[in-house]
């Protein structure tokens, strides 16, 4: 490689890009329409959208964490109070759905534990299996034998009959 460099053959690029000069005096119609669109359509829509978002940010509503207030049980309703009967029935249905999901979650945990542990699942998943047995027994005690058309009244009657049988068994055991 030669010692003296020919700077004319290898020119250094300019440090700044030159600004193109306008050839015509007529304004660019695209820039004009973009400006008009921005002020006529985009700015008001953006203002309204931001205002709505500010209003919604003040009072957030999380629909997926909806919490219902607890209503009186069917046993606490007065005779002829049909609104109380309806609310107690709705509360009972929500409680039944929650209890069903609890049983399903525990069942899925047991299945995952059995899958994870393989042949050792009898000793390693004993706690989960015991919890599943307790949860299913509690669910069966409360909702078992009600069928598809079970409601709060039949569930309350089932609970009342079970309590009467337990008292009768205690009375017989103490004699």
From TrEMBL:
<keyword id="KW-0679">Respiratory chain</keyword>
<protein>
    <recommendedName>
        <fullName>NADH dehydrogenase [ubiquinone] 1 beta subcomplex subunit 10</fullName>
    </recommendedName>
</protein>
<comment type="similarity">
    <text>Belongs to the complex I NDUFB10 subunit family.</text>
</comment>
<keyword id="KW-0472">Membrane</keyword>
<dbReference type="GO" id="GO:0005743">
    <property type="term" value="C:mitochondrial inner membrane"/>
</dbReference>
<dbReference type="GO" id="GO:0045271">
    <property type="term" value="C:respiratory chain complex I"/>
</dbReference>
<comment type="function">
    <text>Accessory subunit that is involved in the functional assembly of the mitochondrial respiratory chain complex I. Complex I has an NADH dehydrogenase activity with ubiquinone as an immediate electron acceptor and mediates the transfer of electrons from NADH to the respiratory chain.</text>
</comment>
<dbReference type="Pfam" id="PF10249">
    <property type="entry name" value="NDUFB10"/>
</dbReference>
<keyword id="KW-0999">Mitochondrion inner membrane</keyword>
<keyword id="KW-0249">Electron transport</keyword>
<dbReference type="InterPro" id="IPR019377">
    <property type="entry name" value="NADH_UbQ_OxRdtase_su10"/>
</dbReference>
<dbReference type="InterPro" id="IPR039993">
    <property type="entry name" value="NDUFB10"/>
</dbReference>
<keyword id="KW-0813">Transport</keyword>
<keyword id="KW-0496">Mitochondrion</keyword>
């Amino acid at each position: 490689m030669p010692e003296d460099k020919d700077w004319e053959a290898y020119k250094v690029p300019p440090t700044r890009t030159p600004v193109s000069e306008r050839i015509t005096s007529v304004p660019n119609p695209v820039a004009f329409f973009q400006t008009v669109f921005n002020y006529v359509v985009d700015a008001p829509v953006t203002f309204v959208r931001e205002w709505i978002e500010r209003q919604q940010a003040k009072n957030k509503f999380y629909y997926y964490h909806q919490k219902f207030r607890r209503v009186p049980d069917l046993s606490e309703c007065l005779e002829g109070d049909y609104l109380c009967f309806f609310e107690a029935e709705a509360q009972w249905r929500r409680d039944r759905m929650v209890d069903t999901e609890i049983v399903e979650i525990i069942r899925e945990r047991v299945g995952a534990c059995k899958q994870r542990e393989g042949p050792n699942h009898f000793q390693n998943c004993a706690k989960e299996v015991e919890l599943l047995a307790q949860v299913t027994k509690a669910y069966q005690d409360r909702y078992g034998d009600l069928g598809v058309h079970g409601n709060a009244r039949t569930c309350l009657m089932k609970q009342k009959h079970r309590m009467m049988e337990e008292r009768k068994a205690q009375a017989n055991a103490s004699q």
